[in-house]
Design a protein that fits this description.
Keywords: Signal
Radius of gyration: 22 Å
Number of strands: 28
Structural class: mainly beta
Organism: Winogradskyella poriferorum
Order of helices and strands: HEEEEEEEEEEEEEEEEEEEEEEEEEEEE
Distance between the termini: 63 Å
Largest sheet: 6 strands, antiparallel
Pfam family, one: Por_Secre_tail
Protein name: T9SS type A sorting domain-containing protein
Helix content: under 10%
Shape: globular
């Protein structure tokens, strides 16, 4: 009896560790009886998770979901109708020709924004293009090469060179095995991968790897471009570390010297509350709570390479690239 009780206790602990995710959809213009959310978290059931009307055309449901990457759609009347998307719609991922919404659950409860049925909420607000910084750690590459490239899709003339190999999509050597570039990309979900010397060599992934999409033949990295951001990658390792880059509004902000062989001096026109520095793999290497308008970021213990500093001030949050020589 004691052993049986212990098993029940473990099962209860596992269930309680899940995350509460709230889904919300605007069903304006649809003719239906009951909407649902259907996805890989409920085996694509057409009637397992019904939504509740919370006023007007807005329907919601909160589900307990464990950490992981998921695909889903809003549906109604047991698959009588469903979200309809095209490849590249910014809130979706395309696998095996199916265009579904994408959800990443990572250790915390979330209330997702209310989205129109068969549309992305990102398309209804904000700018249509963004600045994306890519930093790739090539130190794990086993051979020799001359150039590193980022190859992938284009959309409306912007993107990764339309899989061209070597056509101006070369990354800059940042030192310490790191290569990077900054691109202006339209709001879209792109597929891409890192290659060397054109297509002499390329990354290889398997279907289901984190942050990848596949058609069954080719499996590529995937990025959702819906805001300014910095993407940290490691050669041939699926996944990505994403740091958002938001404006500081009217705040004057300065870091110098950068690059540095010693320390960085950070100054702002108002109080800087928190500074967190990450290495290229996303590991936290420095945390400070200065609560003043100037601070010294000590780099003596840091290795040569590129770091990202997330700075939280009174007027907003900003992420900047730091270089240690």
């Amino acid at each position: 009896m004691k052993q049986f009780y212990f098993i029940l206790l473990l099962i209860g602990t596992t269930i309680s560790a899940q995350n509460n995710i709230t889904f919300s959809v605007d069903m304006s213009g649809q003719t239906f009886t009951q909407p649902y959310v259907s996805g890989s978290f409920n085996s694509w059931s057409g009637d397992a998770n019904a939504l509740t009307n919370v006023g007007g055309d807005i329907w919601e449901v909160t589900l307990s979901i464990p950490d992981g990457e998921y695909e889903y759609k809003f549906t109604y009347d047991n698959w009588a109708g469903q979200d309809a998307f095209s490849q590249g719609d910014v809130c979706t991922i395309t696998n095996y020709g199916n265009h579904n919404r994408r959800l990443v659950v990572d250790g915390s409860d979330m209330v997702l924004p209310t989205t129109p049925f068969s549309a992305c909420v990102e398309n209804t607000t904000g700018p249509s293009s963004f600045t994306v910084n890519f930093v790739v750690d090539m130190s794990g590459y086993g051979g020799s090469f001359t150039n590193v490239h980022i190859n992938g899709e284009n959309y409306n003339g912007q993107g990764f060179g339309n899989w061209c190999g070597d056509c101006g999509n070369t990354l800059t050597d940042l030192g310490g095995g790191l290569y990077g570039t900054t691109l202006t990309l339209e709001e879209y979900s792109y597929q891409f991968k890192i290659t060397v010397d054109g297509w002499t060599d390329q990354e290889n992934f398997s279907p289901g790897d984190p942050y990848t999409a596949t058609d069954g033949t080719y499996t590529n990295r995937y990025i959702q471009v819906n805001e300014d951001k910095t993407i940290n990658l490691e050669w041939n390792v699926a996944g990505q570390e994403t740091l958002d880059v938001n404006s500081f509004n009217d705040e004057k902000f300065l870091v110098y010297p950068n690059p540095t062989q010693g320390d960085w001096k950070l100054s702002g026109s108002s109080i800087i509350n928190n500074v967190t520095v990450y290495d290229i793999l996303g590991k936290q290497v420095l945390v400070m709570k200065p609560n003043r308008d100037e601070v010294i970021l000590e780099a003596s213990s840091l290795k040569t390479g590129v770091y990202m500093a997330k700075i939280e001030g009174q007027k907003g949050t900003k992420t900047i690239k730091l270089v240690k020589n």
